[in-house]
Amino acid sequence: MAAPTRFFHLASPLVLVAAAALAGCSTISSDGSLLGFITPYRMEVVQGNVVTQDMVAQLRPGLTGDQVRTLLGAPLLADVFHANRWDYVFTIRRQGAPAQQRRVTVFFENDRVARFEADAVPTEREFVTSIDVVRPSARKTVLELDEQQLRAIPVPAPSRAALAPDTAASGPLRSYPPLETSVR
To answer: How far apart (Å, rounded) are the C-alpha atoms in residues 143 and 175?
Structure first.
């Protein structure tokens, strides 16, 4: 009976240390990583139509529903009970980037745009920048040599063709057997 008791005396501190390391939210950092280096995969979720400032700038009263559909795409929400209202809702959740949600609502009277309401929508460049999740440390840096380092690079030895130009004209240095043999 002494052996199991000794095992539990040795295992108890290890279990406590493991439980403390894995306990609660303290192991999950503010960037969502576990223990500071394990980041669980989060699926990218994109819903709706991306509406940019350029698109909203072209939206004006008097456009027909077809023109709005050509300009902004099909609305995400077209309610049967509110047929004169189209809602363009865009949401994106991407790992490493803040979640975004924007809404553009178009109101119609007699199949013509009467008015519209829009959240602050970004330009296309601002939108792409906001969802770019490449960390600066992961970007490749271009290494350049200064003049002194360029002079320190050894000059390669000249090739055989450069030493004897007449051998290059005589043909290849190696000969290979023919690919096909004539059979008669």
So the answer is: 42
